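Fold this sequence, please.
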Amino acid sequence: MLQPLQGAMWKQLLQRSARENLTLQGQIREMLVSAILDGQLKPGAPVPSSRELATELGVGRITVVLAYQQLADEGYLISRERKGHFVSSTLLGQRMQNRAPADQGHQAPSIAWAQRLYQQPSAQRSIVKPANWQKSPFPFLYGQFDESLFPTAAWRECCLKALSVLDIRDWAPDQITRDDESLVDQICTRVLPRRGVWATADQLIITVGAQHALYMVADLLMREQTRVAIEDPCYPDARNIFASRTSQITPLPVDDNGLIVDDRLRHFDYLYTTPSHQCPTGVTMPLHRREELLRLADAADLVIIEDDFESENNFAGNPIPALKSLDRSERVIYIGSLSKSMAPGLRIGYIVAAPALITELRALRRLMIRHPSSFIQRSLSLFISLGYNDAHLKRLAQAQKERGTLMLDALARHAPQCTVTPMSGGGSCWVQLPDNVPATELAERAAERGVLIEPGDVFFQAEQPTGHFVRLGFQSIRARVIDEGIATLAGVIAEMQKRRPPMLIG
């Protein structure tokens, strides 16, 4: 007869399932499911009576009874009258049948996958962030989640409202190519007008973040020999996405007013630009240059892909009108994000473009993912309609203004040998290091002191750009530790300068 696990083992299994977001009943359920699926409880094995297990774990008996009932309803346990609960043989039997038996007597030839690949995305240069960055005392990383700024109560309320019977009937069915109409309406009436953009439902499509939007635009419009201009420095993954479609990628310089607009732009089919907050420098393109860019684009039949980078994250609290707001010929493909300012993990963005292009983007999206999560879309629609989004953006602008001011002050005092690009908003600053301080080496040495920074090399087209830059994010670091973190970073810079005296020219 199969014997149940001993009492000490049950306590160990429960400790493995102890998570803050699970109730005690949920932890017991997870403990039992894990023990069954991992083979610690065999098919047909008895589990302790609810009274015995409750005593072993030091919990109320009703908690165990409810857990057993749910597992029996789900087919993991079988209840036998006057005998107790047993592990289901049927459920695990089906799982075992689905596993193909290994042929021990024949060694299949390995597949040379490298020879089959048409491209190697893993070999592209991209931004790398440590998985455990939150454990660092000074994480100067851009675009990461800050739990202290996340509107937990408001978001939970909107998610619960989206789970009402009537709402579920709306978002639960397969939407195929459609988006949540309420979210589209909120973007068109509440979000875009803040950017000076007016759009109708047939001009907008929801995406799984702004990066998904870039991928679809490139997939639909670019092939080999398509001529694409990008800013230099530039968002690395935009460059990587375009480069996976065409080798005709040309970097163009930026200055203190963003992308330099001149006759070089006449030689391209598409231009990717971030005029609101240039990535990564953070500078803003002024109105006169935007108007000049659109005039040139009309004359040269150039299509502009506007990534409205950090458009809502302005220290003044008033977003700068988008380039799209000046577009009168549907020449601008406008890409925005609703999750960047809230929580990157939500992954909700959108594209505003000509109806003919949106129609094809919908058909393409259907082949890729059908549509983004309808539940998230509905919850976000409620979040905007109830005024929570506007309140959150004001709070975010205030927090980032405070942190940005502290960052600039700390850099001026502790690292005067560095040059900081002026910024008017956003969650990061662009810093030029002394010539004898390589950014990559600085990042490695600083990480040893608990200071995480992003080397700027990856933002440039050239693998070894002239000058040394770093991007210092302050969106996910507490205000109270900014000064100490910059002081620590400045100490590493000073040490490197002593070891590497500046080169004398003469």
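The chain has a mean pLDDT of 88. The radius of gyration is 28 Å.
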